[in-house]
Every structure is written in C-alpha cells, then in structure tokens.
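Lab meeting, item 3. Inverse folding demo.
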C-alpha cells in the first residue's frame, strides 16, 4: 500500500475533471481520473482510494448505479463517495443517493473552498483509519509472538515443577517418619497448586481479556485457608513472623465457587505481605458480611505490619508487571503480576478488592466475594479423597488404541495400561491410526490416546479424518501431548478431540483419565508396594552418580520399574551416538524443519529419561532452529556442546551398567524346553502381549521389547526371543503359540 492516499475523480467531461484537480492542488494526495462509470469500477478493483468524487449525470452508467456497485463490492464498500451534481440536487435525489451508498453531496458549480475542506476531512479520517489498522495488525503480531513465547516457556516451567511433584511423591513412598511425611505432603500439595495455577498464568491473554474459566464446585474455605497457610508457613518461620488466621464461626462448612482461584488470591496476598514484612505479624481473616440459605457475602482480609505504601504507590499496584517502587524488584524480586491477577480473579468472580495502607504502618487487603452455600449432598464423590482412591482401576475388556511415534512413550503407556488389565493396540503415526480404524470399524475401540506432533500425519489431522469416517463421531479421542497451553487445549477440542492429558503426566492423572472415559469393569488386583528406599537394584547407585541424570524423577515416570528404565537407557546409548551428525546432515541439505522436529523429539525422550542437562541443551537448540539461527556461531556451539554432552552421558551409562553385578540367572539347563510355558502365573505383560499377537497387532514388537526389559534372565526370556523372531517374519500366530500353546486368550 502506497504511503500517499489516492482520490478518484469520475466525470464524463474532461473540463470538470480538470477543475476538480485544480481545486485540490494543495492536497497531499494522488489524483486519478476516470471518464465513465465502467472505467471507474475497473480502476477500483486494482487500486485503493481514500475518496471518490463521483459525477451523477453520465452516459451509459450514471453515478447512482456506479455507487450501488461500489457498495455491493466488499473491496470498495467502505470507500467514501461524494456526489458532485447540478441536475440531481433535490431532497429526493439526495435521499436516493444516500441509499445507494453516497457519503456526501456537492452541488455544481463547485465551491473550491468547500470541496477542499471536505476532501481534507475525509483524507484525515482515511489516515487515522490506516493508523488504527496498522496498530491492530501490530497488536495481533505481538499477540502471536507472545503466545509462541509462552507456549515454549510453558515446557521449561513445567519440567522443574513436575520434578518437584514427582520427587516428593517418590519420597513419600520411602518415608515412614511422620514429620518428614508431613513436610513432603505439603511440598506435594504446594506443587500441585502451583502446577494448576501456572497452566492458566501462562496464557496471559486469557487473563487480561477476562476470559479465564471459573469453576463452581463445592469446597471448604477453611481447608483452602489452611492449605494456603501451610504452603507459606515456613517463610513466616524463617523471618520470625507470627502467621495467624481468624475465621468467622458462622462460615458454612461448604461453599460453591472456585477453590483454586480463591487459594491463588490468598497465596498472592500472603506472599506479598511476607515479602514486605520484616518484623511483627501477618493475619488472615475470614468474615461473614451477610448470609442466608442460598448465599454468603464473604470478606477475606490479609493484613500485615510491614513497610506499607504511599498513595502514589497504591495507585500502581494493580498494573501488570509493575512494582509499587522499582527498587522493590532489586530487593525482593517478583514480576509485579500477583496483585494484578488478584484483582482480575476477584472481579471475574463478581467480587472486588481494595487496599488501605500507610508508609511504615502496614497494609490491609480486603476481598469481597459472594458465594453460594452448598450442602454435603451437593459435593460430588470425586471431591472426596476416599472416593477418589476407590476409582475403578481394572479394565480387562477395554480396547484402547495408542498413537505415538516415540517407542519410549509407547512403552510407558503399555506398562501403565497393562497394570490395569488393558492390552492396547499401537500406531506409530496418525495415518496408521486412520488405516487401523477404517479397517476395524467404529465398534473396535473404546478409547484413543493420540499424540499431536508425529510424522506422516499429525494428531489433529488424524482426528479430523477419523471424525469423517462413518460411525466415528462419538469415539473418545484424548490428546496426549506436552503442548498444554489453554488455547492449545481449545484447538484440540475444536478439532474433535474429547480430552487432554499433558506430558509428562502423573500416574493419578493418567488413571483418572481412564476412569473418565472407560466403563467400569471391576476392581484391580492387588498392586505391589513401591520398593523400599534402600532396595535399589544393581546399578542404581552408579546411575544416580551420573552428572545430569535425575534417576529418581525418571523412575517415578516408569512407575518404579528399574529394569525397564535400564532397558531404555541402553536403547538411548545405541540410538544417540550419531544424533548430532544426523542434525548436521539435515541442515546441510536445507531440511531445517526436519532437523527441528528431530531435536523436539529428542528433547522429549531425554526429558522422560531424566537427562535434564541434555533436555535443556536440546530446548536451546530447538529455539535456535526455530529462529533460523542453526548455522550461527551460537547454533554451531550448541550442537558441539550437545554432542559432547551426549557422549559423556553415554559413557556414564555404559560404565554404570557395566559395574552392575550380574543377576542371579536361572540355569538354562534347568529351564523349560523351548515352547513350554514356564511354571507359575503368567506375567500381566505377557498376557497383554498374547492379546496383541492374537489380533496380529503391529504393536506386538514393542510389547515384546517391553516384556524382555521387564523379564531379563528369567525362564520367559528364551520364549520371548523366539517369539520376537517370529514377529519379525510377521508370523504372529507362531509367536502366540510359542508363548501360550494353542489356547486362545479371551
């Protein structure tokens, strides 16, 4: 678009066009002429005009018809048109002209000063409109950049937080000391609260627009306050502050509202008070302002004896990313988001927040909310921890299709599903999933767990194709992905998915998802308790000593299965030696997007295995590839550093596994003859494998690898090795018979 606006003059007489051009000689605009209506319409299709000066009385096509056609074309409908006429100047003619789309009228003979004044008004409006459009586009670009930034940062924030949650859960399994367990439970509760809050904080666009979804569920405000105080209590102890709570005796046992958001408000206000209070106290008060059988008017106060604020500082405290005093950031840290979020959340719940403070005399925040009063009968069983522990956890007849291109992810899901009696079928990309479903039919599966980023056909495209198949409109499809932004979840739901499970996921979240989407089929068999703290198997201590390898967090993801974890560490050593060379080859061939996708997948694998340093390097390299800086000095340095770190990690793993004393192997001479099933109960993983073999499922190869990792040096190993050889020849029935004889697995 040119920087100089254009004016189109349409008149069948050249003398009139010349007169108008002369009258507008002081205007900063390009004058374009047309001698008839047809030429004028053709010109407007090729160029943009700030104003059209249109004669009414012209041969073949008069000005009224030209204006009608301009109004009917979306490209020109908003362009202002001034009719210039001598003959058609009656009130009726003017009304007719306005109806056809004219903006103004000028009578001939033309008053040059009036024409000039009107033209300048319309040019000014045009320039203002262009400036607004440019600002709007810039805002949209900034929004897209922000969304992309937040989407990338979300992974970096969630990774350490998931480690906190996972490690605390693992430590709880190994601790019998009551005080330690109390501390660990508080760590776990705080981590879960922070994780839930971060999931929404990352999408600042939603918060700023007031579009954050709020729940309305029964909850105990007393417990919410207690949980918030337990989270920040140690900070008060460290600073020697008294931390108190005073709760109105009239407070109902259960209220209807969003406990997470109310706890978020409390935590932000309490942290703010603790940050700016060096001596004295911080107190939380919950008061009832009014109450009836249906609703309660609440006053939540957080007051401290801290440094206080001046009136000018109070005026700025609710602005996002702004501290009351710039020196605060240097001394106390923080983003300046906390109080802004409190205000938006309170107003989102139809409430309000106010503050009173004086320098040196402390600060008091008051939050007014009106919440519904709930009864015990309104509290769903899912809110009851005891009920949650009794969720159905055994689905022997469930049919689940897992779609993921990463063998490690497939193996993890296979292990978890097998623990509740499910023998899943696998697809390695979206196209395989579509082909399987098209052949099997709409009644063949109860649930699909779908990765998003995959080769050949991604999860979203696969979902669209599945929904287009006859009979597949209601089959539950769950997005299983590390993309966890609110707007990303909305995209998945809009594309036809039913639910979302963020990676890396916790075991409770995974099993809760199964409970939501699979029919109840009975209780699970007893599950063995996690191994004791000192019962690490061979190689555990050596692996834990490797720099950059967080074995505790990784084992939590593997449900404590150390044999399976070691198996995937060996796989990593075998697969990763030439990884950076592969990236270099892709970049040399101009396949930068393929290189980025490979690095993204590598980042996910090493993150699951607990290789935090490698994960951070891969994330940095992925950012460089996305920014087109792969061949910059920084990009080359990242690839060199990644290659060195991979080499060091592989060497450390090999050394640790080599130091592991051999297991007490079962004598092959005394083992069962080939083809004979070992004595004792069949392992659950082998039972699941038999179902896959019976269906000639392509996921059988992955399942056999998982069984071998789980059952090394056992009587099952030679049978599994022989079965793998048959599967490699696509003789699934022969493999099944090796493991189970001729009997079918129902």
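The presenter then showed the designed sequence:
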């Amino acid at each position: 678009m040119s920087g100089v606006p254009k004016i189109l003059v349409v008149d069948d007489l050249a003398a009139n066009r010349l007169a108008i051009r002369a009258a507008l000689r002081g205007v900063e605009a390009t004058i374009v002429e047309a001698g008839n209506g047809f030429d004028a319409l053709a010109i407007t299709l090729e160029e943009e005009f700030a104003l059209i000066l249109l004669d009414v009385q012209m041969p073949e096509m008069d000005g009224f018809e030209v204006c009608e056609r301009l109004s009917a074309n979306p490209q020109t409908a908003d362009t202002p048109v001034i009719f210039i006429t001598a003959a058609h100047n009656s009130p009726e003619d003017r009304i007719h002209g306005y109806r056809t789309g004219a903006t103004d009228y000028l009578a001939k003979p033309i008053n040059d000063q009036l024409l000039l004044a009107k033209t300048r008004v319309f040019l000014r409006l045009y320039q203002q409109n262009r400036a607004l459009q440019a600002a709007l586009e810039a805002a949209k670009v900034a929004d897209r950049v922000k969304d992309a930034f937040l989407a990338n940062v979300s992974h970096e924030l969630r990774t350490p937080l998931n480690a906190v949650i996972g490690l605390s859960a693992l430590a709880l399994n190994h601790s019998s000391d009551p005080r330690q367990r109390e501390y660990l439970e508080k760590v776990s509760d705080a981590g879960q609260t922070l994780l839930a809050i971060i999931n929404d904080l990352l999408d600042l666009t939603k918060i700023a627009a007031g579009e954050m979804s709020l729940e309305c569920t029964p909850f105990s405000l007393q417990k919410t306050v207690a949980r918030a105080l337990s989270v920040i209590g140690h900070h008060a102890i460290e600073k020697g502050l008294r931390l108190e709570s005073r709760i109105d005796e009239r407070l109902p046992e259960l209220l209807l509202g969003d406990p997470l958001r109310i706890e978020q408000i409390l935590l932000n206000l309490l942290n703010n008070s603790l940050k700016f209070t060096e001596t004295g106290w911080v107190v939380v008060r919950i008061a009832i302002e009014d109450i009836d059988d249906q609703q309660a008017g609440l006053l939540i106060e957080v007051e401290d004896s801290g440094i206080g604020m001046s009136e000018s500082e109070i005026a700025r405290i609710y602005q996002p990313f702004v501290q009351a005093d710039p020196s605060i950031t240097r001394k106390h840290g923080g983003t300046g988001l906390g109080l802004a979020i409190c205000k938006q959340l309170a107003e989102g719940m139809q409430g309000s927040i106010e503050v009173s403070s004086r320098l040196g005399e402390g600060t008091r925040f008051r939050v007014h909310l009106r919440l519904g009063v709930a009864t015990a009968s309104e509290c769903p069983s899912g809110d009851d921890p005891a009920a949650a522990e009794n969720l159905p956890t055994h689905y022997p007849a469930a049919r689940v299709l897992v779609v993921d291109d990463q063998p490690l992810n497939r193996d993890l899901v296979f292990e978890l599903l097998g623990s509740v009696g499910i023998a899943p079928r696998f697809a390695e990309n979206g196209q395989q999933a579509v082909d399987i479903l098209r052949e099997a039919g709409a009644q063949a599966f109860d649930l699909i767990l779908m990765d998003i980023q995959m080769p050949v056909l991604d999860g979203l495209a696969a979902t669209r194709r599945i929904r287009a198949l006859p009979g597949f409109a209601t089959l539950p499809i769950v997005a299983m992905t590390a993309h966890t932004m609110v707007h990303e979840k909305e995209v998945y739901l809009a594309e036809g998915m039913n639910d979302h499970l963020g990676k890396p996921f916790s075991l409770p979240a995974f099993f809760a998802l199964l409970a939501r989407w699979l029919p109840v089929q009975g209780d699970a068999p007893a599950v063995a308790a996690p191994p004791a703290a000192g019962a690490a198997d061979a190689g555990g201590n050596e692996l834990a000593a490797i720099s950059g390898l967080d074995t505790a967090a990784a084992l939590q993801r593997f449900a404590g299965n150390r044999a399976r974890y070691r198996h995937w560490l060996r796989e990593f050593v075998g697969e990763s030696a030439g990884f950076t060379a592969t990236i270099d080859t892709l970049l040399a061939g101009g396949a930068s997007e393929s290189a980025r996708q490979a690095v993204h997948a590598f980042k996910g694998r090493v993150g699951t295995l607990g290789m935090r340093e490698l994960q951070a390097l891969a994330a940095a390299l992925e950012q460089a590839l996305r920014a087109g800086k792969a061949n910059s000095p920084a990009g080359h340095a990242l690839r060199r550093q990644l290659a060195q770190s991979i080499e060091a990690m592989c060497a450390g793993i090999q050394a640790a596994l080599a130091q592991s004393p051999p297991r007490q192997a079962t004598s092959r001479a005394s083992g069962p003859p080939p083809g004979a099933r070992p004595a004792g109960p069949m392992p659950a993983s082998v039972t699941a494998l038999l179902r896959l073999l019976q269906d000639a499922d392509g996921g059988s190869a992955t399942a056999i690898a998982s069984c071998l990792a789980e059952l090394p040096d056992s009587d099952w190993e030679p049978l599994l090795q022989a079965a793998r050889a048959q599967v490699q020849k696509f003789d699934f029935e022969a493999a099944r018979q090796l493991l189970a004889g001729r009997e079918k697995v129902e």
